Amino acid sequence: MHSVKGHHESTTLEIAHHARVSTATVSRALNRVPNVDPQLAERVWKTVDELGYYPNTQARFLVSGRSRVLGLIVSEMVNPFFPEVVQSFEDIAVQHDYEILLSSTVHDPKRWELAVRRMIERRVEGVALLTFAEEDSLTEKLHSRKISLVSLDDAPSARSGRKIQVDYQNGIREAVQHLAALGHVRIAFVAGPSHLKSSQERKAAFERSMKEVGLEISSDLIVVGDHSLEGGIRALPPLMSLVDPATAVMCSNDMTAIGVMRQAYDSGIEVPRELSIVGFDGIRLTQFMTPPLTTVQIPQVELAKLAFTALREQIEFEHKDDSEYVIPTQLVVRRSTATVLKSEHKRQLKSS
Amino acid sequence: MHSVKGHHESTTLEIAHHARVSTATVSRALNRVPNVDPQLAERVWKTVDELGYYPNTQARFLVSGRSRVLGLIVSEMVNPFFPEVVQSFEDIAVQHDYEILLSSTVHDPKRWELAVRRMIERRVEGVALLTFAEEDSLTEKLHSRKISLVSLDDAPSARSGRKIQVDYQNGIREAVQHLAALGHVRIAFVAGPSHLKSSQERKAAFERSMKEVGLEISSDLIVVGDHSLEGGIRALPPLMSLVDPATAVMCSNDMTAIGVMRQAYDSGIEVPRELSIVGFDGIRLTQFMTPPLTTVQIPQVELAKLAFTALREQIEFEHKDDSEYVIPTQLVVRRSTATVLKSEHKRQLKSS
DNA sequence: CTGTTAGCGCTTTCAA
DNA sequence: TTGAAAGCGCTAACAG
After folding, report:
1. Are residues A205 and A284 in the same domain?
2. Rounded CA separation B77/B87 (Å)
3. Is residue B307 domain-shared with residue B263, that is, in the same domain?
4. Residue B175 is part of which domain span?
5. Which residues of A97-121 are buried (b: 16+ CB within 10 A; e: fewer)?
6. A50–chain B nearest CA distance, Å
7. How does pLDDT run across B100-126, given as a tens digit for each residue?
8. Rg of chain A over CA atoms, in angstroms?
9. Mean pLDDT score, A75-97
10. Range with the lowest mean pLDDT among A91-105, A188-202, B311-325?
């Protein structure tokens, strides 16, 4: 039975008294150091149980110099890409006895600075930067304090720390091939903000993939959005009012795709019969749309695990080699894509 | 200029030497204790800046006995209700110089126990329990250690700590009145798991509201779901195959509503023309649906703020009165609800 | 107003 | 194998 009356925090000293041993022995027993008399250890554990003792990590880590806390900086929790990442990161961190210090930057330099300060003051042992745009001077600050770093390779010029590279090409190629196989020729692309490296790469991957399947990329089929719902909404009309309109649209991220879907709905365009839509990111809510969205998935759980592992390797094994990690992407076909509508049908539709 | 070369952690002692004062004075200056010679304080701050000193919170809080860490336990990050709550809670906590220790329980007793242990070991000063079902014995454990608690008043028998009550009635009343005003009479309700107090209250509020507007609640219009997408999918068919089918359905939560919407889509039932749908919770993604979902909003930001404030009052002002906090709910009309289809039209539809 | 000193709770030499 | 004692970085008496 655990005693619940331990209203005041018990300490190693107290345990030591009750168990008639020294604090050193208590410490050894607690940490399962070999060569401790089993009898004594037993007494210690019994007392620990009776008194409801929990070690004080503040004290423990003051002396050991290791906080066992990892910083996790994300852009914003409310961006649906991140909750799964945070959850998974927490899961695995806790399994390995680390705590996480979560910070959302909300794209605000002030918040950024605050986040870095918090991380340093709490003496985190490493920081995972899972954001889409980072502040170089601040990561430099972390790096200069010998704090291990991992980040998505999305920042334009970040140099310090390990990088995780997203393999945009593969998933996007699959998506383009999928659309081509469905007979689509007029495939549009709604790009993201051009200052983000990840946007550029997605667009480049699209163009490359189109070439590979021998499809033409006419510039009127490329429009630039901003990775938001509104961006998607605005993107569609110009694409549909072309003399030869798009029959499918690929989007640089899921929110854009959702915007496109909304605009299609509001314009009476039926998805997927008259228009196929493909998203990118694989956020959870794409499953919930009507119809569920075909998208290119970045495996968030894998990403989180990889980030953690990379950090842990640096911290515990002082791995210093600069190999980049790469995370694959994959097409998930759902119900927002379908065979292209044959021209005769289209004409019928128009005249009706 | 901040020096970046401070590769080894500087300490108050070091600052003291450089500034030619004692560590006590360093501490005083840093904490802006009054009655410190401005000259000395100036020297201290300058040195702090030069050496890139950041206080070690572990040490600071070891002596002060205050960790300035708050536990935040949620059911699961991937439940779309929580990210906003977490984000807001973090925001306000950080503003007040608290750190948060996040834990998702994932409805797993093991995780629950682990969460509580983590909280105790890190010596959190308070815990916000923002979950839909809690483990009584564990909150008791926290309580017995004099850790401040706030929780949603959803657990069946939780006694310890402050409670936050959700005013289900108001929002649901608004929703029912909204539907009634649109001419709906056959209003169905998809309930949540019956063991959750929050489910029971939502259902009771629905029934009360129906009576208020003088509408009949026939038992074939009440079905029980499980707060999941699948539950919503399964709930709809029986409601539509009635001799006098539902024209509107209220759901105990948003995921259920989304499931209903999906099933309507798959059955060729047009929303909102042939069927109105109302959700509950006001999770973000309801805005993104096609059509955007009418729902009863629990103000997540307010909820998080309230939880934080309640905790802070207990911690810093030792407020001990047991007044319950109540959080209002409100109908948000979007586009999944519309005037009931007149009977003649329905007949036309059927015969066509 | 400032410095000296004694801890906070724990781990870790170093002797015994 | 165990205990005594020092010390992690900081704050808070207590003298001066």
Report:
1. yes
2. 11
3. no
4. 168-298+333-351
5. ebbbbbbbbbeeeebbeebbebbbb
6. 14
7. 999 988 788 888 899 999 999 999 999
8. 27
9. 91
10. B311-325
In a domain, A3, yes or no: no
CATH number, domain containing residue A176:
3.40.50.2300
Q: Is the pLDDT of residue A6 over 50?
A: no
Domain boundary among B36, B64, B92: B64
Across the interface, whether the CB atoms of B94 and A102 are under 8 A apart is answered no
Query: Are A166 and A329 in contact, with CB atoms under 8 Å apart?
Result: yes
Residue B244: how many other CB atoms lie within 10 Å? 10
Number of independent structural domains in chain A: 3
Q: Is residue A343 part of a domain?
A: yes
Taking the CA of residue B251 and the C1' sugar atom of nucleotide C8, their distance in angstroms comes to 53
Q: Which residues pair with B277 in a beta bridge?
A: B249
A-B contacts (CB, under 8 Å) = 146
Does some domain include residue B317?
Answer: yes
**A86 vs B contacts (CB less than 8 Å):** 77, 102
Name the more confident of B322 and A285. Answer: A285
Specify whether A114 is located in the same domain as A241: no
Structure tokens at B267: 């059955």
For residues A265 and A293, membership in a common domain is answered with yes
pLDDT, tens digit (0-9, with 9 covering 90-100), for A98-129? 999 999 987 888 888 999 999 999 999 999 99
Q: Is the CB of residue A25 inside 7 Å of nucleic acid strand D?
A: yes
Nearest residue in B to A115, CA atom: B94
- A32 and A179 in a common domain: no
Provide the pLDDT for residue B343.
Answer: 60
Question: How much is the pTM?
Answer: 0.91
DSSP letters along B116-134, please?
Answer: HHHHHHTT-SEEEEE-SS-
| Residue B330 and residue B172 in contact, taking contact as beta carbons nearer than 8 Å | no
What average pLDDT does this structure show over B237-262? 97
- Asked whether B128 and B147 are in contact (CB, 8 A), the reply is no
In whole angstroms, what separates CA B319 from the centre of its chain? Answer: 23
Query: Do residue A150 and residue A231 come from a single domain?
Result: no
Are B344 and B323 a contacting pair, CB within 8 Å? no
Position B6 scores a pLDDT of 42
Statement to judge: residues B219 and B342 lie in one domain: yes
Euclidean distance between CA atoms A325 and B194, whole angstroms: 47
Q: Is residue A266 assigned to a domain?
A: yes
- The answer to whether B257 and B279 are in contact (CB under 8 A) is yes
> Is A92 in a helix, a strand, or coil?
helix
Query: What is the number of alpha carbons within 13 Å of residue A284 lying toward its C-beta?
Result: 21
Under the phi-then-psi rule, with left for phi > 0, alpha for psi from -120 to 50, and beta for the rest, what region is B106?
A: left
Can you tell me the mean pLDDT for B237-254?
Answer: 97
DSSP helix, strand, coil percent of chain B (3-state; round to 5): 45, 15, 40
Same domain, A213 and A113: no
Residue A211 has pLDDT above 50, yes or no: yes
Beta-carbon separation of B78 and A62 below 8 A: no
HSE-up (13 A, CA, CB side) for residue B231: 18
